[in-house]
């Protein structure tokens, strides 16, 4: 068994790790730091997680930490996991396991084990199947995780077929690690993922969603998506993405929509701001919208007799499709609405440079984008993937001009919070009506007036309202002066 002793004091680990190991040793028990925290040591970074494994069962763990931990929780006890806090650190300790899965079930059948190496054998990948015995600092690496890390290869401790049969979500995790760590799956892992892709159907949408978010937010999200598509896993997660591989022939030339979408996602990620900026990265909403922005194209592609290709209304169709997919994946309503809005608006800018926009059109652009304006700025810029430098420069300059005009109007009008010059109460008082649909119609009209004409005085706004009312008031309402 490959092993060596690592000096804990030189690894940058918090002192609580050594203290925790000594606590278990004093009780005659084994304890090891395991998985991601050990892997990250070899990547030159400190993991935010502190995961441990032990030969004690959960009840015995509770006895050991009694009086030492500041607090603890037992929500994962049935799976052998006890969570606790000590000082400012959160720790999780899990009993050695030899999990067995029912191929038809979504949940593991947990069997506690007694041996560290056997516990490591059942873990997903060799790079996560390393442990640091505590308090000695002995590295336990029976499956060559360090070697695979250096080679940037993702492989399984046992056969990938057994690993993925035990937990099919591990195939998604392979793509996630490709995105996060820049690792390439081994040939046998790729083959098993391709052969077993349909096994994802037994995994809950919530678990798949969480892996997808981590993948999209990774350092190399394009690599993760390409692995999903190339193995067929994407057909069970985001089938709209492989569908972007539209067939072309000599008579009908158009941009490779699939590769274009991957490029847009990469470029959108590069446009994210730092933590203090308007779109701190990694930003899932921006990146996912970039990936999905053209998913309406397959359904809207049309050929003209001349060979030209059109995708009319693919933005509207795409917004509907992305809502449907995100609901299947159990995303929350706010995230779904944000992504769909970006997909629907991603074409709005085009034409600005040629025809120019009135102030009214600029106001509508900002109002329609709402709280997604900063993301829309980045998505629109990222959507330029042309190799024609002159065209790319012209589009960039046009969008620079649009952003300048938005900033100028915002200073003049507080554009981001545009409201009609008359509120609902004023409308009801002026028209002598009670709350109801007619108030909403009048309010919408006054918002349109505000967008078209900019700020008006109260007298001017009243005149616009009364002019509209003369043409639109219900017959039975009568004249406000009669009420």
UniProtKB/TrEMBL annotation:
Keyword ATP-binding among record annotations: yes
Superkingdom to which the source organism belongs: Bacteria
Keywords: ATP-binding, Coiled coil, Magnesium, Metal-binding, Nucleotide-binding, Nucleotidyltransferase, RNA repair, RNA-binding, Transferase, tRNA processing
Coiled coil: 392-419
Pfam families from the UniProt entry: HD, PolyA_pol, PolyA_pol_RNAbd
Domain HD: 257-379
GO molecular function per UniProt: CCA tRNA nucleotidyltransferase activity
CDD domains: HDc (cd00077), NT_ClassII-CCAase (cd05398)
Listed EC numbers: 2.7.7.72
Cofactor: Mg(2+)
InterPro entries: HD/PDEase_dom (IPR003607), HD_domain (IPR006674), HDIG_dom (IPR006675), NT_sf (IPR043519), PolA_pol_head_dom (IPR002646), PolyA_RNA-bd (IPR032828), tRNA_adenylyltransferase (IPR014065), tRNA_CCA-adding_enzyme (IPR050124)
SUPFAM superfamilies found in the cross-reference section: Nucleotidyltransferase (SSF81301), Poly A polymerase C-terminal region-like (SSF81891)
Gene3D superfamilies (alphabetical): Beta Polymerase, domain 2, cca-adding enzyme, domain 2
PANTHER family xrefs: MULTIFUNCTIONAL CCA PROTEIN (PTHR47545:SF1)
Record protein name field: CCA tRNA nucleotidyltransferase
């Amino acid at each position: 068994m490959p092993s060596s002793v690592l000096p804990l004091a030189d690894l940058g680990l918090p002192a609580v790790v050594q203290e925790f190991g000594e606590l278990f040793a004093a009780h005659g028990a084994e304890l090891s730091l395991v998985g991601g925290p050990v892997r990250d040591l070899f990547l030159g970074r400190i993991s935010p997680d502190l995961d441990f494994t032990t030969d004690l069962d959960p009840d015995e763990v509770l006895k050991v930490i009694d009086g030492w931990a500041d607090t603890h929780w037992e929500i994962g006890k049935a799976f052998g996991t006890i969570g606790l806090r000590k000082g400012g650190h959160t720790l999780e300790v899990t009993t050695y396991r030899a999990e067995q899965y029912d191929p038809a079930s979504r949940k593991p059948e947990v069997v506690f084990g007694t041996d560290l190496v056997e516990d490591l054998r059942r873990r997903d990948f060799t790079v996560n199947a390393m442990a640091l015995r505590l308090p000695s600092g002995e590295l336990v690496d029976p499956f060559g995780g360090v070697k695979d890390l250096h080679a940037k290869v993702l492989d399984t401790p046992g056969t990938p077929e057994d690993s993925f049969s035990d937990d099919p979500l591990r195939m998604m995790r392979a793509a996630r690690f490709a995105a996060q760590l820049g690792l390439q799956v081994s040939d046998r892992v790729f083959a098993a993922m391709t052969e077993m892709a349909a096994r994802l159907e037994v995994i809950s949408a919530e678990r798949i969603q969480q892996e997808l978010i981590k993948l999209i937010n990774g350092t190399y999200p394009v690599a993760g998506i390409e692995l999903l598509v190339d193995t067929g896993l994407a057909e069970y997660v985001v089938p709209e993405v492989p569908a972007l591989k539209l067939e072309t022939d000599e008579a009908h030339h158009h941009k490779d929509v699939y590769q274009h979408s991957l490029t847009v996602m990469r470029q959108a990620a590069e446009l994210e701001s730092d933590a203090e900026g308007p779109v701190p990265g990694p930003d899932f909403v921006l990146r996912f919208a970039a990936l999905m922005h053209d998913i309406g194209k397959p359904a809207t592609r049309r050929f003209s007799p001349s060979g030209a290709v059109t995708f009319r209304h693919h933005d509207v169709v795409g917004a509907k499709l992305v809502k449907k997919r995100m609901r299947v994946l159990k995303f929350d309503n706010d995230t779904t609405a944000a992504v769909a809005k970006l997909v629907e608006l991603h074409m709005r800018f085009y034409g600005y440079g040629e025809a120019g926009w009135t102030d009214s059109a600029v106001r509508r652009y900002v109002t329609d984008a709402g709280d997604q304006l900063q993301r829309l700025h980045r998505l629109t810029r990222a959507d330029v993937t042309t190799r024609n430098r002159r065209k790319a420069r012209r589009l960039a300059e046009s969008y620079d001009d649009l952003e300048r005009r938005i900033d100028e109007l915002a200073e003049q009008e507080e554009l981001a919070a545009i409201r009609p010059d008359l509120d609902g109460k004023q409308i009801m008082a002026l028209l002598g009506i009670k709350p109801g649909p007619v108030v909403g119609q009048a309010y919408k009209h006054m918002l349109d007036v505000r967008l078209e004409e900019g700020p008006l005085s109260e007298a001017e706004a009243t005149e616009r309202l009364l002019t509209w009312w003369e043409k639109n008031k219900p017959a039975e309402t009568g004249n406000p002066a009669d009420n």
